[in-house]
TrEMBL record:
The lineage of its organism: Eukaryota, Viridiplantae, Streptophyta, Embryophyta, Tracheophyta. It holds the Pfam family SASA. Residues 1-27 form the signal peptide. Transmembrane segments: none annotated. GO terms for molecular function: hydrolase activity. Residues 34-230 form the Sialate O-acetylesterase domain. This is Sialate O-acetylesterase domain-containing protein. Keywords: Hydrolase, Signal.
Amino acid sequence: MAMPLLPFLYASAVVLLLLPPPPPVAADLPPSNKLVFILAGQSNMAGRGGVLGSHWDGIVPLDCAPNPSILRLSPQLRWEQAHEPLHDGIDSNRTCGVGPGMAFANALLRSGRAGAGSVLGLVPCAVGGTRMAEWVKGTDLYADLVRRARVALETGGRIGAVLWYQGESDTVRWADANEYGRRMTMLVRNLRTDLAMPHLLLIQVGLASGLGQYTEVVREAQKGIKLRNGAVHMCGYTRQRR
């Protein structure tokens, strides 16, 4: 006697549901040798506008071009090939543009200092308009930075440095400018503790301009930060001829 159709379909569906999922394709697996850089701070790190104008025009300079050896950790915590704007979906409700992240990664690969065959993993975390007080331990921004950094470590990466570009918003009020050095010092100490990396390197971009009258106060605080297992090394910007 023929088997009724509906029970047969139901039985087949159960069998399919119980089957193990197919193994991931090799191309879907993130490389296990990633050299990771955390990108944090405010809009100067996130990127605003385009190269030729104040609005994002989609034009990407060669220094910021995509490279198969440069990945980014997406808002959904998945590794994908990095491209501008790096902070799309991270610095939400804003139109992000070209920032320093891709230019840094491409320059590092060209220099050869990352090692032959290296894959760089960029972890964008910057949010425009933020003050240092919004990055201290206990805030949402700090928690998100640590969470994303840990995911990068757990998926086969080692953190090379935190790239920090922030400070303009702290030049408006004396209270923020006066506390900048202490808050920055605590940020680095807490990151080193929470990521179990006592020698975590932080590369900070010195403040070039500010929004308020206390720019020099913040600038001096950046230069005067004192940390265990570290020192402040300053160097100027030099444009290299190609």
